[in-house]
Amino acid sequence: MLRKINISGVNIIRCRMEDISDAAGSDLITARALGKYNDLLRWSKARLSQIGKIVLLLGRAEAEYLLQNAEWVWNEPKIVPETSARVVLIGSPRQNS
């Protein structure tokens, strides 16, 4: 997709998070087909840049659960058009946590 729309300066890594060792300073982390959100948050916190964000596509119930995580600052979940239960949740680690 990035090649088709001619976006540069993006590094897409396609593998399991456990297999990535060089993602420090990432501005954006996203994942799909994941159920271990707390593991992903812990992993991401150590790898996001100071302005970095995590973007998740998940169910409403999962989003409500993650919104309670006080170590992260979350934007209001956005409903995915033409779905009734999927949302996009964007967040960043709370500073000094």
Structural class: alpha+beta
Shape type = globular
Number of strands: 5
**Total of helices:** 2
Residue-averaged pLDDT: 84
Q: Low-confidence parts lasting 5 or more residues at pLDDT below 50?
A: none
Question: Main sheet, how many strands, which sense, barrel?
Answer: 5 strands, mixed
**Helix-strand pattern:** EHEHEEE
Distance from N terminus to C terminus (CA atoms, Å) equals 35 Å
Whole-angstrom Rg? 14 Å
Tell me what portion of residues adopts beta-strand conformation.
Answer: 25-35%
Helix content: 10-25%
How would you describe this structure to a colleague?
By secondary structure, this protein is an alpha+beta fold. Helices cover 18% and strands 32% of the residues. The chain has two helices and five strands, in the order E-H-E-H-E-E-E. It has helices at 37-45, 60-67; strands at residues 26-31, 48-59, 72-74, 78-79, 86-93.
Topology:
Blueprint: E1 26-31, H1 37-45, E2 48-59, H2 60-67, E3 72-74, E4 78-79, E5 86-93
Parallel strand pairs: 1-2
Antiparallel strand pairs: 2-5, 3-5, 4-5
